[in-house]
Amino acid sequence: MTQPVHVETYVPEEPTQPRDPRFRAMAVSGGLAVALCAAAVLLPAPYVLESPGPTFNTIGEVDGQPLIRIEGRESFPPSGQLDLTTVFVNGGPNGQVNILDTFRAWADPSANVLPEQLVYPEGTTSSDVQQQNAVAMTSSQESAIAAALAHEDIDFTEELSVAGLAAGAASEGTLQEGDILRTVDGEEVENITTLRSALSEAQGAPAALSIVRDGVPMDVAVTPRKSDEGDYQLGILLASTFDFPFEVTIQLDNVGGPSAGTMFALGIIDTLTEGDLTGGRHFAGTGTIDSAGAVGPIGGIAQKLVGARADGAEFFLAPAENCGEVVGNIPDGLTVVKVETLDGAVDAVEALGAGEGPAGLPAC
Known about the structure:
Elements: H1 21-42, E1 44-45, E2 47-57, E3 61-62, E4 65-66, E5 68-71, E6 81-90, E7 97-98, H2 99-107, E8 112-115, H3 116-119, H4 126-151, E9 157-165, E10 180-184, E11 187-188, H5 192-202, E12 207-213, E13 216-222, E14 225-226, E15 232-233, E16 236-243, E17 247-250, H6 261-272, E18 282-285, E19 288-289, E20 295-296, H7 301-310, E21 315-319, H8 323-326, E22 335-339, H9 342-353
Parallel strand pairs: 6-18, 18-21, 21-22
Antiparallel strand pairs: 1-7, 2-6, 2-8, 3-4, 5-17, 9-10, 9-16, 10-11, 10-12, 12-13, 14-15, 19-20
Helix pairs in contact: 4-6
């Protein structure tokens, strides 16, 4: 009987050679250089990176719920899209970015790189940013509701109060935080437009103000100062308190800031009125709004243009004051309309939604 044969293989070791000390020094220095380069790339960088964020249809749904819900008044579910646009912001209080992240953003034409100190004051924390964005979003929503109701000639009340004073302001020593403004030069202060108009007409003359302080009515006079823009200002920050005749709820989590105001207002108007403002077409846009319907500038518009087009928008509503940043940054296939007021935005959407061309509309 044949016995199995077990064959063991043997691989001889290579003869040991003495190492050149220069090789060891080169290996050590090379490894150190690699480690230093890796550390440098991963070090925090003092920059803030902006990139296109998601869009949200203000006349659509989020997580199965209408983004805008109206209770206490008849509403009409519209079709089409009126997208608010957002920007992803990384860096600073939002979490440090590194050199590699920054280089990638510099190489990305849709991203923007800003020095951190130009975006956030020193000492700003993540909690500060979240709180500021939440307050701005709430204020934006209230102003959007007010502007939409005013456009629809629906009555509501607005109370203006002093939220703060600028250092060295004309009102310093006369007005205080919490003062409620009732009249200016004998005219009832219905909104910010009333106050601005009265100051403009007076051309720097002392403004006679009736206020309520801690529940006590009183009369004061403030001499406004002319700003660099040529208007007359009291140097106060204003807060508005509204009383609306029905409830408008805007449901949108994880988005902060004031820049969605114009699109919120358009969404509310479309929901309050029969028919489709958009004609079923796809609009996007941005812009702050005040209760009088004035559309204001925002940041990150180049990234918002990219995000809007990536999500299929045909038309984009851009604040007039952002036109300088719009030019040269419009993606192919996107038509941009310049807007200064909510009335102008509604007119533009109605015209384009009805199939009219953009030739007769304001452009940047």
